Amino acid sequence: MARPRTPLIALLSATALVAVAGCGAADMTQQSSPFANAQGAKTVTLSVQSWVGAQANVAVAQYLLEHELGYRVDTVQIDEVPAWDALSQGRVDAILEDWGHPDQEARYVEDKKTISSGGELGVTGHIGWFVPTYFAERHPDVTDWHNLNKYAEQFATAESGGKGQLLDGSPSYVTNDKALVHNLGLDYQVVFSGSEAAQITQIKQFAKEEKPFLSYWYKPQWLFEKVPMTEVKLPAYKEGCDADAKKVACAYPRTPLKKYLNARFAESGGKAARFLKKFSWDTEEQNKVAMMIADQKMSPQDAAEKWVHENEKTWRAWIPR
Questions:
Q1: Which of 1, 35, 38, 8 is nearest to 23 (CA)?
Q2: Is-contact 39 60, C-beta < 8 A?
Q3: Among 87, 138, 233, 302, which is most exposed with the fewest C-beta within 10 angstroms?
Q4: Axis-axis angle for helices 52-67, 283-294 (nearest 10)
Q5: Which tens digit of pLDDT belongs to each residue from 196-218?
Q6: Pick from 14, 123, 26: which is nearest to 79 by CA?
């Protein structure tokens, strides 16, 4: 996610988007789809990020590209920053959910001009620190970061070395948490679960036992409907307060999530490129599909098909004439 999330790398088949919310995989960033940047062919290659919200985007886009526009769609799962390299080189045609990478944007969009903006996804992303609402209701002052040290002992785990645990996801996610803990003088240890899926499993287990926990988490995310969580207020975000990664001492920004296309594909990708530029939905719609995939255990293809059949008024406007 970035300001946040990003995990793994795995080449997926053109018709099978893996129904996971994050897991480990071999580094395959040098592999490319044989359909990426295919001149004149009705093929599209989409980069799919490992978190389930991004998988929901790709599943619906893939379904409509294939069933409404007659394209062959291939998907490649790549970490966030390597995905920009792959997009620039034409190894993938589009990224449908980017959480903000100003360095890559400056390099590839503004300087090299090998990547073009595909417009906003329609979803605003936000990362923060969250505690379970059942704990916040018993201890209302925990929602102010100034009081976190008061609860460090209650948040401690076997993995946090005697300090309070701040549960993060994958080490590959873009996160300021280690700097925040240090710069705010907090008696906490950042503990990485390894992936979104592992983090969800841990949060669900804590909630089942009604244990206290403090976790890096983000919106949109379907898990809030299963485990209500309340955000801890960090020092207010101000433009530029996160410019120096080592000195960050402020909250994460709210980020309108964006789409990016390979520049050549944006110009010559025909209806597929025009469709992806128009593709835009809100948090509620994304969460519907994400929950079908992650919570109801539907395949991404089945979840996309169900959503498409029930929401023609929304997606019909995306289809180029």
A1: 8
A2: no
A3: 138
A4: 100
A5: 889 999 999 999 999 999 999 99
A6: 26
